Amino acid sequence: MNTPRKAVALISGGLDSMLAAKVMLEQGIHVEGINFFTGFCVEGHTHAIRNKDQEKKEKKRNNALWTAEQLGIKLHIIDIIEPYKDVVLNPKHGYGANLNPCLDCKIFMVREAHKWMNENNFDFIITGEVVGQRPKSQRKETMPIVQKESGIQDLLLRPLCAHNLPETLPEREDWVNREKLLDFHGRNRKPQMALAKDFGFKDYAQPAGGCCFLTDANYSSKLQDMWNHRPSRDYTLDDIILLKVGRHIRPRENFKLIVARDAGETRYLGGYKKQFKHLIMRSHSGPLTLIEGDELSIEDIQLAAAIAARYGQGRDTDEVEFEYADPQNDGYQFSVKPLPADEVKPVWLV
Amino acid sequence: MSSKHDQITELDARNLMCPLPVIRAQDRIKTMHSGELLNVICSDPGALNDIPAWCRINGHRVISTLHDDYNIEVLVEVG
To answer: Could you tell me which of A196, A191, A165 has the C-alpha nearest to residue A178?
Structure first.
């Protein structure tokens, strides 16, 4: 009996990669999943910092792990935060509608998966890509670019749309039966949903909004603002996670506030007190506010507090007392009058 | 309990958001042997689901989980 061929499946946690892996498993291929963590991944747990999300009835889960468990395959999660920076900062093929370098991202991930494939003696890579579907990396003209620039060439098989693409080596060598592959194309999701039903998958992650924060206009706006106000566009994991948390308000060029939106975010931002100047509301119940910026004047801190006071229980009072803390210097307590709602300029909201 | 169980390797994954605690546990387990114990200490409640899920699909066994107001601990026996 021949040893089954081994495929590495790029598992995002969405339906398409789940189906692609299942199509291969049905052909007797040994499949293991690989999932890349870029730091920009849309994770249920990032949202779950907030109270409203913690109160949701459904269990928090990592969709890639959940998908692997449904398929009965191993999943390897790879931390690519550091090498991925070059993809975000210098995308050869540019950005999409927001700061999403989708084509460069796919090339990078396939290249990394190719390395993993060689190191672990696998035979080929599969993805859940469908020609003509969003994003840019799944256009008919860009799919060959991914194969060429990642170096994987014809060892990349896309089972869901293989009939619309040239034969790959796994098909030519009869490792897989091309006849049993599919011809999906375009943005219509009905074929995927029908196939999911055929396979008995009743629950799967909805792909709306994608799996990456860089495709989100609000998130991209905050990232661009961060880049605009720093000497370098380099970033840390903390930087990009903090862009997912709180209200970001920049009333002056030299500083930005991150105001927690609920107790869950206040708890989370509390973990950054040793790194950031911050304001704690003392006279009333209210959110923790981090201040990102240097060379703050007393007027800057008072404006920051007046804005932060708007988001606490004392917003309609004449005076709210704050403690200002600075990890590098002594803090102090002071009071401010909350800024009236109509004086918080919309342009300040990042 | 075998002598292998006398030593528990501790992994501090506090202040990391999922899936980083899973990745750290995965990378540590790669360096360990079958039957050895790893205790992962986390602060993200998501780890309570994710580390056991990762263990189930990769052939490791969760021996116990603890959750108090501050931390989560997941004790794993390497498969």
So the answer is: A165
